[in-house]
Amino acid sequence: MTMLQSRPWSPPPVVRPESEPPAPERTDIRPGSAQDLEAMTTFLSGLSAETLYKRFLTGLGQVMPPGLPRQLLVPGATGGSLLAVRGAAVIGHAMWAPVPTADDPSGASTVEIALVVADDHQGQGLGSRLVDALVDDVSGHGFAHVHAVVSAENHVVRRMITRRVSDARYGRDGALITVTADARSLAPRRSWPRGASTAR
Ligand SMILES: CC(C)(COP(=O)(O)OP(=O)(O)OC[C@H]1O[C@@H](n2cnc3c(N)ncnc32)[C@H](O)[C@@H]1OP(=O)(O)O)[C@@H](O)C(=O)NCCC(=O)NCCS
């Protein structure tokens, strides 16, 4: 006669797949340089006509102007650039460079800023991260004024400005708006003013 021995029950071993699925790649923001030329060229080539127009305020045509990627990465002797990178790919770019204006013809005290995010990555908070990093970068360089030129119908970027600048001065030139602010008034994103329109 065979005796069945009662043994304490233990759960079956958990079988794990050979390798876990990769975590989604994270997006880093870092300074751009001439080393990023190839990735920057690929990034610019992939932008839609609408995004290119909003960024450069003109049609760029079928062929990318030679030298544009380099100029955006290294904007002059005193300017700077930031890249949003995921893996080896550039998915966003921001830059600042001194610029002459009517109030400051020498361009010694005014810095122009601009940014662009890849179409597939827009509306996910990346532009906000880039602009906050840009504000940090610029504030260390002692410029008195910050200046941006945007399309009047670009409500996304106008909203971004309103939320970070308390003393913006606006000028209108046809379809374009120039926004100038005291560099010291730049701050991290503010809450949307109570009662203001949130139409985008
Ligand atoms: C402007 C731009 C850089 C913003 O980057 P983004 O990653 O899309 O922006 P975010 O997701 O960080 O959103 C920024 C704000 O706009 C709002 N927003 C973003 N996309 C929006 C959309 N399609 N409709 C309405 N609101 C939108 C966000 O809710 C956020 O508002 P909040 O600050 O109140 O939270 C990007 O849309 C872009 O590259 N546009 C084309 C180039 C351009 O216009 N450059 C600016 C001129 S230099």
Automatic annotation (TrEMBL):
Keyword Transferase annotated: yes
SUPFAM superfamilies found in the cross-reference section: Acyl-CoA N-acyltransferases (Nat)
Listed EC numbers: 2.3.-.-
EC supergroup of this enzyme: transferase
Entry-linked Gene3D superfamilies: 3.40.630.30
UniProt keyword annotations, A-Z: Acyltransferase, Transferase
One Pfam family matching this protein: Acetyltransf_1
GO MF terms held by the record: acyltransferase activity
UniProt domain N-acetyltransferase: residue ranges: 27-193
InterPro entries: Acyl_CoA_acyltransferase (IPR016181), GNAT_dom (IPR000182)
Location of region: Disordered: 1-32
Source organism, top-level taxon: Bacteria
Basic and acidic residues bias: start-end ranges: 17-29
Name by which UniProt lists this protein: GNAT family N-acetyltransferase
Species whose genome carries this gene: Mumia xiangluensis
Phylogenetic classification of the source organism: Bacteria, Bacillati, Actinomycetota, Actinomycetes, Propionibacteriales
